[in-house]
Amino acid sequence: xxxxxxxxxxxxxxxxxxxxxxxxxxxxxxxxxxxxxxxxxxxxxxxxxxxxxxxxxxxxxxxxxxxxxxxxxxxxxxxxxxxxxxxxxxxxxx
Length: 94
Description:
Order of helices and strands: HHHH
Distance between the termini: 14 Å
Low-confidence stretches: 1-8
Oligomer: single chain
């Protein structure tokens, strides 16, 4: 194993499709169980809800999408990127 490989992300480090699925499963499960929202998923679910006859107004949907998008950007930049910065300490090179 090359020196930089020990810092690889689980899904990239595993060679089989089953290993990749099992590696990502706990992160996705935690995201869903914490009842967090994702802006791209909501862009799909709002029109689906409207076609099913839900009572959500377009104004409510846009308000939700704005706040969820801000949260996704903050979580991606502040949570994920910052965590990688601290984890790799500038040692990760490829």
